[in-house]
Design goal:
The protein is mainly α. The chain contains 6 helices and 2 strands; from the N terminus they run ααααββαα. The chain has helices spanning 2-8, 15-24, 40-72, 78-84, 101-110, 141-153; strands at residues 91-92, 98-99. Strand 1 (91-92) and strand 2 (98-99) form a beta hairpin. It starts with a helix and ends with a helix.
Length: 157
């Protein structure tokens, strides 16, 4: 505590005088009376926590964006399709889009061994079902009754 004797000498000092004397000796004085002082260790710990939370938040944003995109893509099983993606090649943009995802999904949709993982897009063409042959489909008694009730009340199916 010899450095304090050098700063104070044999007299009392105001805070401003102490601060000036300390600066001349290479010390930095902080007025912690208002609770504004945080130790370097505490500040470093808090910075580390903030950085950890930011990384976790970014991972969560990516996962939500990927789940949403897979749902929109027509994937029958998002988990199965996600397992086939090269996620390290994907990048989340600030507006929530995932760069590189469309290219990977298109490749999976076109490949013979993975196309079944996606719902077929409506093409408007024939599916080859017997009811598309131009012949009228016969309704069951229940369906016919429901159609008659709908028609009577002017309800369209």
């Amino acid at each position: 505590m010899e450095f304090l004797k050098e700063l104070f000498g044999d007299q009392a000092l105001t805070f401003d005088q102490l601060q000036t004397a300390a600066q001349s000796k290479g010390f930095e004085i902080v007025n912690a009376a208002g609770g504004a002082y945080v130790s370097k260790v505490d500040a470093d710990n808090l910075r580390g926590q903030v950085n950890t939370f930011k990384q976790e938040l970014n991972k969560q944003k990516f996962e939500f964006a990927l789940e949403k995109a897979l749902s929109k893509s027509g994937a029958r099983s998002g988990a199965a399709v996600r397992g086939l993606l090269k996620c390290d090649k994907l990048q989340l943009t600030d507006d929530g889009e995932i760069l590189g995802l469309d290219k990977q999904l298109d490749a999976l949709k076109k490949a013979e061994d993975t196309a079944f993982l996606f719902e077929k897009a409506e093409t408007g063409g024939s599916t080859g079902m017997s009811h598309e042959s131009g012949t009228e489909v016969k309704l069951s008694k229940k369906e016919a009754a429901n159609e008659a009730i709908r028609a009577a009340f002017g309800i369209r199916k």
